[in-house]
Amino acid sequence: MSLDEKFDKVMARYDELRDTLAAGLADSGDFARLSKEYADLTPIAEAIAELKKARSEAGDLAEMIADPGADAEMKAMAEEEFHDLTKRIPDLERKVQVSLLPKDEADEKNAILEVRAGTGGDEAALFAAELFEMYRRYAGLHGWRFEAMDVSETGIGGYKEATANITGRGVFARLKFESGVHRVQRVPATEAQGRIHTSAATVAVLPEAEEVDIHIDEKDLRIDVFRSSGPGGQSVNTTDSAVRITHLPTGLVVSQQDEKSQHKNKAKALKVLRARLYDRERAEKDAARAADRKSQVGSGDRSERIRTYNFPQGRVTDHRINLTLYKIDKVMAGEALDEMIDALIAEDEAARLAELG
């Protein structure tokens, strides 16, 4: 099916929905579903209408320019308008094509962020803490809520692992390409010889799952309670408020001890477990789909090295799209992270458009 045929199919469905809803023909059970479909199609239909109008105007102008009897002044104006339209039409075509790409159902969801220290000992843990703070600042710049859920500190300001719940509009859509191994190259504060060390931290961004997305059966869970402890082993409180949940069918284990209430820790642990199970289910579907896909910007593989932060040279390189920014301070402050993320989204859209044919 050509793109123009796809456009016509969308417009036909849009008109059908508009007429059905306007005439009150949808029964109460279908009304909400059809209204949502109509609302989703409206910006696409408007973009297609804008494109068709621009193409039609360009055709009329081309005829005027080709007419030997046309007034010279009118022809000059037509040539100027035609030139502007021919520059605008490819942008309109891309806008429509992007709007027709299959939507990731998780894009509008909130996210669970997990950052873990990898190879590199104390230096890896310090870098993990810096990455966690980078995402906290980035969330703040976007007006999102960033709630640290569970942080395991090393005692020198580093994090062995840290989990946060990020809520706001389109959180997962912007953060989903951050999953993978982030590598850092710099001279650690503890390095007397001034040698550059390479360390790593792993980032996982999971879409927050609702109960309707993932049902967890209580009989599939083993719940252990224990006493919370802070860095260095000191006791945080004297009650068994920390919770460890093991999902028996998959072996996934989630611990939560930040809250003083066992009930709150259990609720948070279940939220993380649900997100991990949902992510696992999505990964299985993506793996099946990937067999048909020619390229992927991010496979979501947690072992894939996606980015290098080189402090001596002040640069950050994303290896998936070969983009290097010489503004490491602004990236770590969350300010320049959008440049990376926008480029990753654009690359993903381009790859999917190529597959659309």
From TrEMBL:
<keyword id="KW-0963">Cytoplasm</keyword>
<feature type="coiled-coil region">
    <location>
        <begin position="44"/>
        <end position="95"/>
    </location>
</feature>
<comment type="similarity">
    <text>Belongs to the prokaryotic/mitochondrial release factor family.</text>
</comment>
<comment type="function">
    <text>Peptide chain release factor 1 directs the termination of translation in response to the peptide chain termination codons UAG and UAA.</text>
</comment>
<dbReference type="InterPro" id="IPR050057">
    <property type="entry name" value="Prokaryotic/Mito_RF"/>
</dbReference>
<keyword id="KW-0175">Coiled coil</keyword>
<dbReference type="InterPro" id="IPR005139">
    <property type="entry name" value="PCRF"/>
</dbReference>
<dbReference type="InterPro" id="IPR004373">
    <property type="entry name" value="RF-1"/>
</dbReference>
<dbReference type="InterPro" id="IPR000352">
    <property type="entry name" value="Pep_chain_release_fac_I"/>
</dbReference>
<feature type="region of interest" description="Disordered">
    <location>
        <begin position="286"/>
        <end position="310"/>
    </location>
</feature>
<feature type="compositionally biased region" description="Basic and acidic residues">
    <location>
        <begin position="286"/>
        <end position="307"/>
    </location>
</feature>
<dbReference type="Pfam" id="PF03462">
    <property type="entry name" value="PCRF"/>
</dbReference>
<keyword id="KW-0488">Methylation</keyword>
<feature type="domain" description="Prokaryotic-type class I peptide chain release factors">
    <location>
        <begin position="227"/>
        <end position="243"/>
    </location>
</feature>
<protein>
    <recommendedName>
        <fullName>Peptide chain release factor 1</fullName>
    </recommendedName>
</protein>
<keyword id="KW-0648">Protein biosynthesis</keyword>
<feature type="modified residue" description="N5-methylglutamine">
    <location>
        <position position="234"/>
    </location>
</feature>
<dbReference type="Pfam" id="PF00472">
    <property type="entry name" value="RF-1"/>
</dbReference>
<dbReference type="InterPro" id="IPR045853">
    <property type="entry name" value="Pep_chain_release_fac_I_sf"/>
</dbReference>
